[in-house]
């Protein structure tokens, strides 16, 4: 039998040509869906930011803290200034029968100016105290803003989840309704049993109950949002389309920077050769106390010793030329090296 490779490759090539458009369309659909998801996340984040700004502008506690902070700062300015000078005008020896100033030589007129000064740095300290109290109230304002933003974000994501769940349940109900109609048709011609039809109708009824519970949950979440946004927003808002997806780029960047910082402070090893002088000095000291080192735990290869900060350790047993390996944090290693250099010097 004469085998021709080009005839074997021809069907494979034809299958590849037929499947290629399908694969391209699938990849295009995935890319399009990813783009739609990204745009939806951006729109949801923008809408949420707008709602948070409205909630902050309507929040009474935030306004109260802000007004108290401004008032406390103004009070500090007032308390740091000198009191107003007092002008004193008086007269004495004035005859009461004529009230003439030139009749009696004992008549005199006195004019004085009085200014009160506080002791030491009282005024500066009072202003500093008021400014610190105002800064504390300002921190309460920031904390309140974060609290409002957190509550709004949680309600927004929960509402988006409920709306997405409603869409899925509506699709499932549509499919179950079609299944019910199909079973009913088969039942009418004797191809299905009554139990199958009852089960399909029961599933549709369960989905209706879940949809009602979902609608109640959405109304409850919208009412909770109206507590932050005001009754006017609830009256003017026709349809609110929330989302359970947000753009977390800022949070991811902060987490990444935090992880990088922790990596810089990770545990490293510092190896130091003990010379005779260092060993002698350590032996003279006898017991060394490590109280101020910013490390949680130490490990010594020589002698297989390990101890924690604050413990007293006898280092006189280490001989000249032994290599001590510190398993410490980066800051702790730098501190140990400086201390050893100081002892050697």
TrEMBL record:
Gene3D superfamilies: Copper binding periplasmic protein CusF, Outer membrane efflux proteins (OEP). InterPro entries: CusF_Ec, CusF_sf. Keywords: Signal. Residues 1-26 form the signal peptide. Pfam families: CusF_Ec. The keyword Lyase does not apply. One of its GO terms (molecular function) is efflux transmembrane transporter activity. This is TolC family protein.
């Amino acid at each position: 039998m004469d085998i021709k490779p080009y005839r074997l490759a021809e069907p494979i090539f034809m299958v590849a040509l037929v499947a290629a458009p399908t694969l391209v369309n699938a990849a295009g659909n995935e890319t399009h869906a990813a783009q739609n998801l990204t745009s939806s996340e951006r729109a949801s984040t923008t809408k949420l930011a707008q709602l948070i700004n409205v909630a902050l502008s309507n929040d009474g506690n935030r306004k109260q803290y802000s007004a108290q902070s401004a008032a406390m700062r103004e009070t500090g300015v007032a308390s740091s200034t000198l009191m107003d000078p007092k002008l004193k005008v008086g007269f004495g020896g004035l005859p009461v029968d004529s009230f003439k100033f030139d009749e009696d030589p004992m008549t005199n007129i006195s004019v004085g100016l009085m200014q009160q000064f506080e002791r030491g740095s009282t005024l500066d300290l009072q202003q500093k105290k008021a400014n610190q109290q105002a800064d504390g109230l300002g921190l309460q304002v920031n904390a309140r803003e974060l609290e409002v933003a957190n509550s709004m974000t949680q309600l927004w994501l929960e509402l988006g989840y409920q709306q997405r769940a409603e869409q899925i349940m509506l699709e499932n109900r549509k499919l179950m309704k079609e299944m019910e109609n199909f079973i009913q048709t088969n039942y009418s011609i004797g191809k299905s049993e009554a139990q199958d039809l009852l089960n399909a109708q029961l599933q549709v009824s369960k989905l209706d109950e879940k949809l009602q519970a979902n609608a109640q949950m959405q109304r409850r979440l919208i009412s909770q949002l109206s507590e932050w946004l005001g009754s006017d927003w609830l009256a003017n808002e026709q349809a609110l389309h929330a989302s359970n997806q947000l753009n977390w780029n800022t949070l991811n960047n902060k987490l990444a920077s935090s992880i990088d910082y922790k990596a810089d402070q990770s545990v490293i090893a510092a190896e130091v050769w003990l010379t005779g002088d260092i060993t002698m000095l350590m032996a003279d000291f006898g017991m060394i106390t490590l109280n101020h080192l910013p490390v949680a735990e130490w490990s010594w290869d020589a002698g297989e010793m390990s101890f924690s900060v604050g413990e007293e350790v006898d280092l006189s047993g280490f001989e000249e030329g032994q290599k001590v390996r510190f398993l410490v944090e980066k800051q702790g290693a730098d501190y140990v090296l400086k201390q050893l250099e100081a002892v050697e010097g």
